[in-house]
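Input (structure):
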């Protein structure tokens, strides 16, 4: 049995075959590496049950059971009450677009939606486009000094016509973890719903939609060690109340299917059971006889280890960057697992951000620059003229040794 307080990093890295190659991956907020368990589940589906669902013959029944098992597993991952609250689809961007199209049909011209200026555009543009049908859009801006969302700035925007507040759980640029539970409670007291983009949070922390009491929550599996696929959670009463986007003969009560035209991708859905396999195995390797008895509790154990390790590697890079007088971190400059993830963005005085990754590439280290589809944030902070930010986005399979290699490479540039 390993030390129960430390991540068994050798075991972890063995589960990601790509990590055995020559590259160090620090662009994980753009897309994480894929678990071998996910690939194995996808292969298993395609090679042994690749048929249409709903027929009477045995292979079709097996395929249906596998897809249903995947939906239930994803409900467990986010702690939804029911698998019927889990809508899977091709991307976060598309799922949010489907949600905006369906939900807005229950609103009237003059109703209002509040978006932020610090989200990925997926959770802004889908709502802003509703202006064409008479929905009023207001913007909740981050404080330019603290780079945080403050409730005192949200309160004046709320009114009796506010129907929804859309905001991010964790900024894909700032790395800041927003207090979703507090914000949601505040919004609910004003009679509105919330829609949370969890793409930047879900790879790092275990989501609990019931504890957060959110109305809608969405994230991408390809950033949580899976394939290019995504999940939208909605409270059952909301999903039942709004019209769907599927064929006319798909019933109003047929959730989540009424939001999945063309059905789910069967093999990619089933593949996400591989993430559950991994989290359970990680809990077992780390905890031994103290392994939790059920899958959800095993997930809690695994993510606890992951977040503790991420705090260590994030701290190493942040301390280096803050030691450089010509570097400005865009976001919280200290590691703190409760208030930030190791998605670390910075700019360098007198340097265009685009010139820096090119010099790191030759060390076989992948980092990135730009606005990362948080274009409104980058523009409002005046960073677009500098090529946006340089972003180093780490996850739990990254090591201290990799961070030190990056620091050594950066030392020749900064």
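Output (sequence):
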């Amino acid at each position: 049995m390993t030390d129960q307080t430390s991540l068994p990093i050798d075991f972890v890295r063995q589960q990601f075959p790509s990590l055995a190659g020559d590259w160090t991956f620090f662009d994980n907020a753009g897309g994480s590496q894929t678990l071998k368990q996910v690939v194995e589940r996808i292969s298993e589906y395609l090679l042994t049950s690749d048929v249409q669902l709903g027929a009477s013959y045995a292979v079709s029944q097996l395929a249906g059971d596998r897809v249903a098992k995947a939906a239930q597993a994803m409900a467990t991952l986010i702690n939804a009450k029911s698998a019927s609250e889990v809508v899977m689809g091709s991307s976060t961007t598309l799922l949010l677009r489907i949600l905006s199209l369906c939900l807005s049909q229950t609103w009237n011209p003059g109703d209002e939606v509040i978006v932020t200026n610090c989200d990925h555009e997926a959770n802004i543009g889908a709502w802003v486009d509703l202006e064409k049908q008479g929905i009023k859009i207001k913007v909740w801006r981050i404080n330019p000094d603290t780079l945080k969302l403050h409730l005192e700035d949200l309160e004046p925007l709320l009114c009796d016509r506010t129907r929804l507040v859309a905001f991010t759980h964790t900024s894909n640029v700032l790395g800041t973890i927003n207090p979703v539970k507090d914000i949601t409670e505040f919004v609910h007291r004003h009679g509105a719903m919330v829609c949370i983009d969890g793409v930047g949070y879900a790879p790092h922390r275990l989501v609990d939609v019931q504890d957060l009491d959110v109305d809608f929550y969405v994230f991408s599996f390809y950033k949580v060690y899976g394939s290019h696929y995504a999940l939208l959670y909605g409270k059952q009463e909301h999903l039942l109340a709004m019209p769907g986007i599927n064929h006319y003969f798909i019933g109003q009560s047929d959730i989540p299917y009424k939001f999945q035209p063309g059905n789910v991708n069967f093999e990619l859905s089933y593949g996400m059971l591989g993430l559950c396999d991994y989290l359970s195995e990680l809990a077992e390797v780390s905890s031994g006889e103290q392994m939790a008895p059920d899958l959800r509790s095993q997930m809690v154990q695994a993510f606890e280890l992951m977040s503790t390790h991420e705090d260590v590697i994030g701290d190493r890079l942040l301390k280096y960057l803050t030691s450089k007088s010509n570097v400005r971190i865009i976001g919280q400059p200290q590691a703190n697992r409760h208030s930030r993830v190791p998605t670390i963005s910075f700019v360098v005085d007198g340097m265009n951000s685009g010139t820096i990754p090119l010099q790191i590439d030759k060390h076989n280290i992948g980092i990135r620059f730009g606005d990362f589809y948080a274009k409104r944030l980058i523009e409002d902070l005046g960073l677009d003229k500098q090529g946006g930010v340089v972003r180093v986005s780490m996850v739990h399979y990254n090591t201290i040794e990799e961070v030190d290699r990056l620091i050594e490479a950066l030392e020749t540039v900064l």
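Notes: The chain has a mean pLDDT of 97. The first strand starts at residue 24 and ends at 25.
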